[in-house]
Structures are given as C-alpha cells and as structure tokens.
Design a protein that fits this description.
Elements: E1 3-4, H1 5-10, E2 18-21, E3 29-30, E4 32-35, E5 49-53, H2 62-74, E6 79-82, H3 94-103, E7 107-109, H4 116-124, E8 126-128, E9 135-137, H5 138-165, E10 168-173, E11 177-180, H6 192-200, E12 209-216, E13 219-228, E14 231-239, H7 245-275, H8 282-289, E15 299-307, H9 313-327, E16 332-337, E17 340-345, H10 352-366, E18 372-376, E19 380-381, H11 385-398, E20 408-410, H12 425-437, H13 446-458, H14 463-470, H15 474-488, H16 495-508
Parallel strand pairs: 4-5, 5-6, 6-7, 18-20
Antiparallel strand pairs: 1-3, 2-7, 8-9, 10-11, 10-14, 12-13, 13-14, 15-17, 15-18, 15-19, 16-17
Helix pairs in contact: 2-3, 5-7, 5-9, 9-10, 12-16, 13-14, 13-15, 14-15
Length: about 525
C-alpha cells in the first residue's frame, strides 16, 4: 500500500520510533520496505521504499554515509529508518542529521526490538486511507466494502473508494448516470468527459472485465469495467497523481463485490416475486426475508414509483437505496414491472405526505432526465396488504384522466377520483364511503344526521331553509352540522370537503338523490 510516513509512525508497532531529522518530509508516501546492506543499494530500488538499516558497513565512514544518503534521495526514497546500536554511544553524527534536514529526508531512529518483517507486513499486507489515515488489513477493507454495498449501495461504495484513495470516485451504468461522493464533478475536470467516454467505450474492446489507465494533461483515469447479463458497470478513479498498486486493488474490489451483489440480488428478486403473490403469512414473510435484512412490518402501505420508460436493474437498485435514505432502514421493495418499482413500508400516517415529498425530490436528483410519479395505497394490516398494492396500482389508470402536479398521488387523498377506476368500483366505493363517513357511524340517530347533511347541501348551506324542510329549529341544524364537520374533520364551506361528503352521502344512500 502507499502510506504517509506520518501515518506509519502513528501505528502502534512504530510508537517508540523517533524522528531525528527531515520532519518536512513526513508527508511523503511509502509503498514498500527494503533492507539496506550495501553502498550501491540505490541502483536496485524503485524509489518508494522505506529503507531499514543498521548502517553497519558505513557507520564509521561519514563520506560514504553521505554519498549513500544523496543516492537514496536521488531515486526518491521517502525515508530512512535506522537502528543505532552499532554507532558510538548509539548516536547518529550531527553532520548526517544536518544532511537529512537539508535533503528533507526523514531519518527515523527505530527501536532495536522492532523487526524488519513487522514494518514490511504493516506496509504490504494492509491498506491505507489517503483521507483519514486509517490502516486496515486487506481482508477487513474488503469486508467493509461488502457491508457498505449491502447497506448503502453504489453511493456508499463511491464514498468509501474516495476515502481510501483520495481520488474523485465515479460510477457509470449504461452510458447514462454519473454518481460521485467527493471530488469535482466530471464535467468540471478539464478533459475528463473525453477520458470517461474513451474508458466507457472499452466495453467493445475488452469483453468481461477490463482495467486500464489513460491520461490527458494532468489528469489520469483508472477504470474497471464488467459486463454481466448485458449490463455494463464502470467504476472510475480520476486524479492528478500517479496511480498505485493499491488503487488497482481497491478498484478491483468493486468488481468482486458486484458479483456477490448479483447473486444476492437474484435471491432477493425470487423472494420478492413470491411476496407479491400475497400468500405469505406475516411470520412466513419475516422468516423468508431474514437473509436480506429488510424490515417487514405487520401493517403498512404499498408505494409504486412509476417511470415513463423502462429502467435497468442498477437503476432500480438506486431507488431502493433512496427509500432507505428516507426511511432510515432497509425497505422491502423491488421491481414489479419493467417501469414500476413497488415498496411495502410502514410509515406513520402523520409523516407520509412529507416523506413522499422528500422521496420525490431525492429521485428527481438521481433521475433528472426521467419522468415519474409516486402512487400510495391505503394502510392495511399485513393480511390485507394486497388491497394497498391494488389501490396504488389503480392510481396508474386514474392518473391518465388527471392533469395535475406534483406527481404524488395518495389514494386516501384522491377523494371521489378513486371511483374513476370503474373495474374496482364496488370495493372502491365501499372504501371511499368508509373513509369519509365512518366517523359518524357511532352517532345516535345517524339517519337524522345524514338527512340533515343532505338537506343542508341541497339548500346551499342555508341553516334556515334546512330547518324549515326538516321541521326543526335552526339551532338544531347548526349543532348537527358542527358535529358532522368536527367528526369528519371537514369544513362544508370548503368546496373539496363539501363535494367529497356529498358524493359519499349519495353513494351510501342512492335514494336520497331524488328526495
């Protein structure tokens, strides 16, 4: 891996090391570890090694020692770690320390018990985050990436990729979508658009998996691409520095994780198809969903997100991650039709509208070039969730007759418009009446209240005319209307509330229409 010398010194195995000189070079990166036991060692080095030495063969020859330091500096050696047990009084001569300060090469006194292999394993068997300084074994980093993919999806992977490499991290799926977490947008990086197009088109040259580096100006692009079942995924690193073997390794993790995610995705889609048959009991559904760590509640809403065009599997995955961001947990949902993403979620009725607005805004930012609508059925217990699914689906047909925005349709708020789905008229009508008038059912003399409502509407909301028609005092009419408005949470002076109450009244009692 490539690790800053300053971060290397922060590790526990280096805690007793002392920087003797060249502190200004502690920001240099180390990519390997090597022993120095001959004066011409610089001829065999790549320039990224942290040198470990006892200086035994030249400790008493200051001229040779200085010549070796200059040759190491000439090839770019980042730092020199030295054990002082063979030096008089275990002290490095001042002129050696002064030269290292002049060269800006860190000279680090290593504790005698510290073995070369300990430093080598720290550098070569671990990975180092260029943004946080964190050091982890390769196995732990891969596991961390795997967990992030499962919990946060592609956006989370890009964030992690940036944290470990310090580069701008991007993802392209099927020519269309750019996602990034940190770093400049690709269009603001001069020449990057052409570089990404070049890299993306490599799918036609390199079948399966490809990894290569291309450059333009001061920018470099490193990419890995994978073609699977006709879908192509590209992960990119964009930087103005040279890429390292660690960058290649981290990018290759993206492809290995993609394969794992694909297998888990197929298993989940199989479960989802079974779930939409609505044959599971609640207990069976919870048990079957355990491998996927999704939340299944004993009551909830069905939400359909309908797009104007078919989406790819990866794009459907992004919708799932968007729902998780809104609700704060993994939500049960997936593609149910080529242009329809369906979700079963437990949302508090008080926050439903706000959360759907937030979801709509988030999806707009993810799919800026796509038109879509959100349909929400009523809330039901798990045993009756099919009804919510069908209600939300019926909005798709109702919407064809409506011209309004925003494109969020909550079944309960559609009022009598839900009756436009005539193939479901009987059940819809019953549910509609229940939603509007159910809170009046416990009233004594319910028929008197309904007749009062009918006469009051027929009179144009005139208390005196209603009282005369019903042979009662106007105050009685005022009281009954106040009770109806309070229990139904409606205002008869509001056109929408008045129309919904009137339609519900006439559907419940068709004989009133002529009376």
């Amino acid at each position: 891996m490539h690790i800053k010398i300053s971060h290397l010194l922060e590790h526990s195995i280096m805690k007793n090391s002392v920087v003797l000189a060249g502190e200004q070079g502690l920001g240099r990166y180390v990519g390997d570890v090597s022993m120095l036991d001959s004066p011409d060692a610089a001829n065999y080095l790549t320039g990224e090694e942290f040198i470990v030495t006892t200086a035994y063969f030249f400790r008493n020859d200051p001229i040779a020692f200085k010549a070796i330091l200059r040759s190491l500096n000439a090839v770019g050696i980042p730092a020199l770690g030295i054990k002082t047990r063979f030096f008089p009084d275990q002290t490095i001569p001042p002129d050696i320390i002064n030269l290292c300060d002049e060269l800006g090469m860190p000279l680090i006194e290593l504790p005698d018990p510290l073995a070369y292999m300990q430093i080598s394993e720290l550098v070569n068997l671990n990975l180092h985050s260029r943004t946080t300084g964190q050091i982890k074994s390769r196995i732990l980093v891969y596991k961390n990436f795997s967990d992030i993919l499962y919990q946060e999806g592609t956006e989370g992977l890009l964030r992690a990729l940036h944290e470990w490499t310090g580069c701008t991290a991007l993802y392209i799926d099927d020519y269309e979508f750019y996602y990034r977490t940190l770093g400049d947008a690709p269009e603001s990086l001069i020449g990057t658009s052409e570089l990404l197009t070049h890299a993306r088109d490599a799918r036609f040259v390199y079948p399966g998996v490809s990894a290569f580096r291309i450059e333009e100006g001061n920018l470099s692009v490193l990419t890995c691409s994978k073609i699977s079942e006709g879908n192509t995924a590209h992960f990119f690193l964009v930087s103005n520095r040279a890429f390292t073997k660690e960058d290649h390794l981290l990018l290759s993790y993206m492809l290995m994780l993609d394969s794992k995610a694909g297998a888990e995705g197929h298993a989940f889609q199989s479960f989802w198809r079974d779930f939409l048959k609505f044959e599971y009991t609640y207990g069976e559904a919870v048990e079957s969903a355990k491998p996927f760590t999704v939340k299944i509640s004993d009551k909830g809403y069905f939400i359909h997100i309908h797009f104007s065009a078919e989406l790819t599997n990866n794009q459907f995955t992004l919708i799932g991650h968007a729902m998780k961001r809104i609700l704060g947990h993994s939500t049960l949902g997936d593609k149910s039709q080529p242009d329809l993403f369906s979700i079963y979620a437990d949302i508090e009725s008080e926050t439903l509208e706000d959360e759907m607005n937030r979801l709509y805004e988030l999806l707009q930012s993810i799919f800026p070039s796509h038109r879509f609508s959100i349909y929400v059925g009523n809330q039901y217990s798990f045993e009756d969730i099919r009804l919510s699914y069908e209600e939300a689906l019926s909005i798709r047909e109702i919407r064809k007759m409506l011209k309004r925005s925003p494109s969020i349709y909550i079944y309960e708020h559609l009022g009598f418009y839900r009756l436009l789905s005539m193939d479901r008229f009987e059940r819809n009508a019953s549910a509609y009446i229940s939603d509007v008038l159910s809170k009046l059912e416990n009233l004594d003399n319910l028929d008197d209240y309904l007749m009062t409502l009918k006469c009051y509407l027929d009179s144009g909301l005139n208390h005196s005319k209603t009282a005369k028609a019903m042979f009662v005092h106007p105050n009685t009419i005022r009281y009954r209307i106040q009770v109806i408005e309070s229990k139904c949470n409606m205002d008869l002076n509001n056109t929408w509330d008045r129309v919904n109450l009137e339609i519900a009244l006439y559907i419940k009692n068709p004989n009133m229409i002529k009376g």
